[in-house]
Amino acid sequence: MGKPYIVTIDQGTTGSRVFLISERGEVIASAYEEFTQHFPRPGWVEHDADEIWASVQKLLARALESSGLNPADAAAIGITNQRETTVVWEKSTGKPIHPAIVWQCRRTADYCEQLKKEGRADLFRSKTGLVLDAYFSGTKIKYILDNVGGARSRAENGELLFGTIDTFLLNRLTGEHKTDYTNASRTLIFNIHERKWDTELCEILKIPQKILPTAQASSSLFGKTKGLKALPDGVPVYSLIGDQQSALYGQLCHNPGEAKNTYGTGCFVVMNLGNKFLESKNGLITTLACDAHGQPVYALEGSIFIGGAVIQWLRDKMNFFDDSGKSESLAKSANDESEVVFVPAFAGLGAPYWDQNARGAILGLTRDTTSAQITQAALKAIALQSYDVIAAMQADSGLKLPVLKVDGGATRNHYLMEFQAGVLGASVVAPRNAETTVLGAAYLAGLGAKIWSSPADLASLNPPAATYHPVMTSAQRERELKLWKDAVSRVLTR
To answer: 215 pLDDT exceeds 90?
Structure first.
């Protein structure tokens, strides 16, 4: 027998990844593959769940082959995932009855507005910690049941199953139908006080509870592999966890008041609240995360719909550069006094504004505006959206954030990180391994498999690699914030 390792599946919005993680918390091997994004109508976003599963199978085989490791030495599997994306499939065959509706999809926005007009917003918020928004899974489930022929009667007869991507993958890996508390808390139908599916909310959305998975702690036994080509039968799945909660855990933000920001397709700021439920007064949501032992705790979260995706847009649609990494040097070449402001509300604005109908805008254009200035404004927008969320978080919690832990691909952009520290007036700390989403799921799975005996063993596995201290003057900060707030006010529709 060789040394045990952990298989971590990170199923994201634009691609799937598989990592093999050693006892030292190091990446032994990894594999990545993008999959198709489907946009059937403006504002609608879909994935093919079968294509996602095919990508995961392929990547498992690829990572294991490149590593030279024995599949029999896999000690555990951890899964982290895009959260609210919704799949409904046949219980008997595993075949999805409709394309997966992605968290970014706005097709149920009108229905959410209808529920608000009916006076339902406070009820949903008090039970789930969430705002009524098309972002979350509940209205997506209702859409599928309403729009696929015979789906509702089949659901009521127990012939269909619902899951977010973690549940769908678990079902394919093990045959089990389960989720964890963090993913369940993103559905709009899970009571985060009682930690169970809420009968009243399910009835409002006409969702039969027969289709819902069993919810349990993020670090627990979810099932064992069965019938896979790449892995033997019996490998335990010891963690399921939503991607942002996984990053919070991977950053070891185990204490109340500690927070992280993940810079991916979107940006997601999460603050650990411990056992204290706090209903936001400033446009945030309350969700479930997990403590050092994988047990549920409360957290404040601010979701920014468009983060790194704005740089992808400049690359793929505007052809400003052929590699996103070139955005840094291009931004640095622009005059810092530029008044170009980019509000990337491509899918509406998330926290703290929650304006589903807002759309993107570039303001302050003149005849001599350059691609460098627009790129600079796009990078600033990522940091300024994050500032808005953190300001709201501090107002809600009464806590001043001296340090922001950061992760995700965009943390490699030094211009963005320096600007983030400056506009926050707080230090920004990036770890050696920026893939903390992956590490969180791996740590939880490893604790379940006794790779590590306690959470204390994790502290030395991923030390800080870079710390950005704020150097921006207060006058500069005020100028940037004024320009930003003026620009946002112009795109808001309410």
So the answer is: yes
